[in-house]
Design goal:
Structural class: alpha+beta
Protein name: non-specific serine/threonine protein kinase
Number of helices: 14
GO molecular function, one term: carbohydrate binding
Number of strands: 27
Enzyme class: transferase
Number of domains: 3
Main location: membrane
Organism: Dipteronia sinensis
Helix content: 25-40%
CATH class of the largest domain: Mainly Beta
Radius of gyration: 32 Å
């Protein structure tokens, strides 16, 4: 009997042990208030005696990783929705005399072994140039980034971002927390040396990833910093590792960590967290170098200096560029000539994608980012207004609109200025309209391009903080993305001025056929002169002909001639083979004529143009024999006629409007 009882108890204890062991192999949650006895896999990171996890120190090009020992079974292929929650306390402590670090990242990865060799610094020890951006990475990252990298499209120097398989964030925000007391966001300095807390929560049913940040002594804010819509079931695999990474330049610490795969992660006990080292306490981080080691280092420096000196002298001339003190304020907007030289393969002729009166345009790929760019090289006079010109170029680089090509920055070298733009895979509109290998744009694509450029021009004239005059609107400066959406580019001639002030642009620049008549007299550009160029552009897109061609009637005269013959639609591009919306074609042709009117008082504003294109206002009923159309050739038209027509545009949203001729007659 006693033997039977002993056997029974043994079975119970053994079963309990097996059950607990099985749970340990598939943990769905854990909490560490310090890491003295934590089950972690460490690569370059280490745990202090008090349980403080240190990912990196102030060493340059240093990488640290820390993973939870067992993979987490997310079961993304099951019918149950994928959800998880985690929170942790971290600190970034800069050291006196060292450059700051690049930040910390929480990440979910299919393996503790990264493919290839990861790179320190801007890649935060997670990617390198060969695997950056690959969908096969299956990596989700929540980054705490303290350096602004233009190649990764960072928003500022202190930000929180969500990255998927890439260092370029799908969503990001300046580091801050929502104060429930003040009902507003308050900024946080990530690299302050103070402990901060982060919450990361994913709801699989709503496909929503929330990221919240706050100082350690404040309860979790009611409003997250980031609320990103994302389907992680398409990114994560069934079995994934969770952990942290950091790279280069500062002491990066994790004080505590809680994780739950199936519900809300437990709150950390702030009182139980390990303390940070006192300032000046370097006993855990420094190693006293021996005399032979110092001798070896000195000898290596002497040899490398001798060899590198000769290389430097040769390469200095190759990459020499102009850099003056006043340019330092522009920071990331200035690209190094070396990076652009490498991006374009040494500005090879095979990389040329365009030529113009101001220089050549090269296709390139920025080193370390795989970002495709277009580099325009133009000549400049470094003694005449260059500072003001560069200041405007940098300001234009802050423009953000879906129908504008992004100007990313510039570079100066000897007698040339290099402007860096986003690359547009379908090139310029004029190449498609007139190139020998061009595809034929259908009417839907053309009207979408016209509207897109109009929308971008309205943003420049009325919706940005300053008024921007483009001064060179033409098909050659309208670029097409992969979906043939039109984007207005080439801001090399653009100028800015404050609202309510008069523009001071008096140099005659632009392209013949797109220049407003008043520019030829005064040289003074206005928003109305941009509208004139846009009118010529509209007619060109609709008719498939340039505004002026040797030996042929001007495009404006041809459209008016067809109109007077009673068939204005005959002016349309014959390659369209009559396949277009007649009302839209008629509107584009008539609106193009009015925008191209020789008198600026008659031209509509870009806001009125958009209203006509979108059908929010009815275009005036104009006949080809009206005095307004006649003013194309009769420049001495009465001023009251112009004023009457201008007022007509202001009130043309009324659908009970009379014809232009009757209004002019009644006004006499």
């Amino acid at each position: 009997m006693a033997a039977a009882l002993r056997s029974f108890y043994f079975c119970i204890v053994f079963s309990a042990y097996c059950f607990s062991f099985a749970l340990a192999e598939d943990d769905s949650q854990f909490i560490y208030n310090g890491f003295a006895k934590a089950e972690l896999q460490l690569f370059g990171a280490f745990v202090h005696d008090n349980g403080l996890l240190q990912l990196t120190n102030t060493s340059m090009q240093y990488i640290g990783h820390a993973f939870y020992r067992f993979p987490i079974k997310f079961n993304t292929s099951s019918s149950q929705s994928l959800s998880f929650s985690t929170n942790f306390v971290f600190a970034m402590v800069p050291r006196s005399g060292y450059y700051g670090g690049h930040g910390i990242a929480f990440f979910i990865s299919p393996s503790t072994k990264f493919s290839g060799t990861v790179t320190a610094g801007s890649y935060l020890g997670r990617f390198n140039i060969s695997n950056h951006g690959l969908p096969t990475n299956h990596i989700l990252v929540a980054e705490l980034d303290t350096v602004e990298h233009t190649e990764f499209q960072d928003i500022d120097e202190d930000h929180v971002g969500i990255d998927v398989n890439s260092q370029i964030s799908v969503d990001s925000a300046p580091s801050a927390y929502f104060s429930d007391e003040d009902k507003k966001n308050k900024s946080l300095a990530l690299e302050s040396g103070n402990p901060l807390k982060m919450w990361i929560e994913y709801n699989g049913e709503e496909k929503l990833l929330n990221v919240t940040l706050a100082p350690i002594g404040i309860p979790k804010p009611s409003r997250p910093l980031l609320a990103t819509s994302i389907d992680l079931s398409q990114i994560l695999l069934d079995s994934m590792y969770v952990g942290f990474s950091a790279a280069t330049g500062s002491d990066h610490y994790i004080l505590g960590w809680s994780f739950n795969k199936t519900g809300q992660a437990q709150n950390l006990n702030i009182k139980d967290l390990p303390s940070l080292p006192k300032p000046g306490d370097n006993t855990k981080h420094s190693v006293k170098p021996s005399l032979p080691f110092i001798v070896l280092i000195v000898a290596a420096v002497v040899v490398l200096t001798t060899i590198g000196g000769a290389v430097y002298v040769v390469r200095k001339k190759k990459y020499e560029e102009i850099y003056e003190d006043w340019e330092r304020e522009y920071g990331p907007q200035r690209f190094s000539y070396k990076s652009l030289y490498k991006a374009t393969g040494g500005f090879k002729d095979t990389e040329i994608i365009g030529k113009g009166g101001f220089g050549k345009v090269y296709k390139g790929v920025l080193p370390n980012s795989n970002l495709q760019i277009a580099v325009k090289r133009i000549s400049h006079d470094s003694k005449q207004g260059l500072k003001e010109f560069v200041a405007e170029i940098v300001s234009i680089g802050r423009l953000r609109h879906r129908n504008l090509v992004q100007l990313r920055g510039y570079c100066r070298r000897k007698g040339e200025l290099l402007l860096v733009y986003d690359y547009m895979p379908n090139g310029s509109l004029d190449k498609i309209l007139y190139g020998s290998m061009r595809p034929n744009l259908n009417w839907f694509q053309r009207i979408r391009i016209v509207r897109g450029v109009a929308c971008g021009l309205l943003y420049l004239h009325e919706e940005w903080e300053q008024v921007v005059l483009h001064r060179d609107i033409k098909p050659a400066n309208v670029l097409l993305d992969a979906d043939l959406n039109g984007k207005l580019g080439d801001f090399g001639l653009a100028r800015l001025y404050d609202r309510g002030s008069n523009p001071q642009t008096t140099n005659l620049v632009g392209t013949i056929g797109y220049l407003a008549p008043e520019l030829l007299k005064t040289g003074k550009a206005t928003t109305s002169s941009d509208v004139f160029s846009f009118g010529a552009f509209m007619l060109e897109v609709a008719c498939g002909r340039r505004p002026m061609e040797p030996g042929e009637i001007d495009l404006v005269d041809r459209v008016i001639e067809c109109w007077k013959k009673g068939s204005i639609l005959d002016a349309g591009d014959p390659r369209l083979e009559g396949i277009f919306a007649e009302e839209q074609m008629e509107l584009i042709l008539k609106l193009g004529l009015v925008c191209s009117h020789p008198n600026p008082a008659i031209r509509p504003s870009m806001r009125q143009v958009m209203q006509y294109l979108d059908g929010d206002a009815k275009f005036p009923d104009i006949s080809p024999d009206s005095n307004v159309i006649g003013a194309f050739t009769e420049t001495n038209e009465a001023s009251n006629t112009m004023a009457t027509f201008s007022s007509l545009f202001e009130s043309s949203s009324s659908h009970t409007m009379s014809t232009i001729d009757s209004i002019i007659i009644s006004g006499r």
